[in-house]
Amino acid sequence: MVNEIQLFVNWVRRRNSKARTWRDYRHVLNRLLSVTGDKPPGDVTIHDIDNFLVMLVEQGLQASTINRHLATVIAFYTFLADDNPSIICPVLDQRHFLRKPEKLPRSVPIDVQQQFFAVIEDVRDRAMFLLMLRCGLRIAEVANLQLPDLFLADTPPRLRVLGKNSKERTVYLSPQVMTAVSTYLAQRPSVPSTFLFLSYQQDGLSTTAIHKRLMKYRIQAGVHLTAHQLRHSFANDLVDVGVPVTTVQKLMGHAWIATTQRYLDANDHKVQAEFYAAAEQLDQWQMDAALAEDETGEQVEAQQVEAVLS
After folding, report:
1. Does 228 qualify as catalytic in the annotation?
2. Minimum mean pLDDT among 27-41, 46-60, 69-83, 276-290: which range?
3. Is position 217 annotated as part of the catalytic site?
4. Containing structural domain, residue 10
């Protein structure tokens, strides 16, 4: 299976050599190879995939990460089936994919945001994390940004972002982000690499390197947050000020409106207001009922006293 994996990885790399997807695919398929051995792809069974899952679970991977591994295996077999339709993918939806707990997105509180950015002096890092917080970029989207993706002289200034499944979207820059990116560009070394954010080796930053920078600042600030929570905060802020859900969907790069709807579910002030209005009415109704019961009791007691005296 080694040769087939290399063919697939080369094909993915030719489609988009600047993205890191091909490296991720190679990593996942090499993991599968460690379970199956170098048997032909057509000989890999559902039991091999069972063992693959056991290995991933034992390594502590989350359900979402495991499901991405399975999706990579499916993509690999889809590629092979183009040349050989007799090859059947051994991954079964109902058997292998793990159900993920449905969690509402969590944003970063304002005070935590302030503490986090207060310790960031590096202009490159400040620009990277502001793109997540104020433009909703995923960490991989930040890592993959290229200089030709910048349209800072346009009105309004914007970015071209390559998101999941190579889906392009336009992202607009707020004045704060525009200032941060421009400040970084003024200090960015003039090198052949077209990646916007450079490593110390003057090539593109990996997502792992960006994660490490975030962890460093998180520890310095004494706060807990993730790169994805910065992105969540952007969506929640838009919902807070009443931006239509379809607009939020486009800015976030969601393929499905149901994904965006979760932000409304997590931040539905209308539902909150209606609940508290109803709760206030219920409380008042219970108080009125208790008061009426007390008055009735007093009347009965007075009648009983009057009957005894007469």
Report:
1. yes
2. 276-290
3. no
4. 2-96
